[in-house]
Amino acid sequence: MSGLGALQAEITECRRCPRLVAWREQVAVEKRAAFRAETYWGRPVPGFGDPDARILVVGLAPAAHGANRTGRMFTGDRSGDWLYGALSRAGLANQPSSWSIDDGLTLRDAYVTAAVRCAPPQNAPTPAERDACAPFLLRELALMPTVTVVVTLGAFGYEALWRVWRDAGVELPTPRPKFTHGLEVVTPRATILGCFHPSQQNTFTGRLTEPMIDAVFARAVELSGRAR
After folding, report:
1. The whole model's pTM is what?
2. CB neighbours of 83 closer than 8 A, spacing ≥ 6?
């Protein structure tokens, strides 16, 4: 098993955060009515994509009835439809949708992960839960030296990445630039791009539109040097 594969397997067995363990497993038992016949994953969700990717996408955490149900990041919910639709249009995914772990989706030069690996209540991890997951993100980055661009989906992912790199000794600008959509921060390790999270709160209100998310991933492709 590769180093990244071993890390993915280790992530799925993590039980560090009692609140998250209890919640993800409760959701997997109670289920949503629409998915009553399905067997929920109900465990931490590992990263997904091309191990030689130049573009890393960092989200917030698995959705209770999305990735916590399907076992794959941003799979089985509307946020995933937006993300993988954008990746497909950018030439980074072979299809624009993601509904199950065996739907045939593959990524090219992109890898999707999250700041927290378990579904949190109210989609709100605590700082302690974020910090407990930080070593996983650090190790992913260490195992993926080809990454030159990191797209952070929302302020939570941006701050989690910043803390990981700060604690690892990466030279970062001070003060830390405030997160906003379209943010671009050059660091010695990789360029950070900010993108509003494709949550329904953002997409239903028009705070995030398809042209906006497409512009971020077009810029990510440009910065990565990848030929589309």
Report:
1. 0.96
2. 57, 59, 74, 98, 112, 153, 198, 213
pLDDT 10s digits, 40-58: 999 999 999 999 999 999 9
Residue with tokens 């050059």: 186
Over residues 58-75, the pLDDT tens digits come to 999 999 999 999 999 999
CA distance 152 to 137: 12
What are the extents of the domains in the chain? 3-224
Q: 3-224 sits in which CATH class?
A: alpha beta
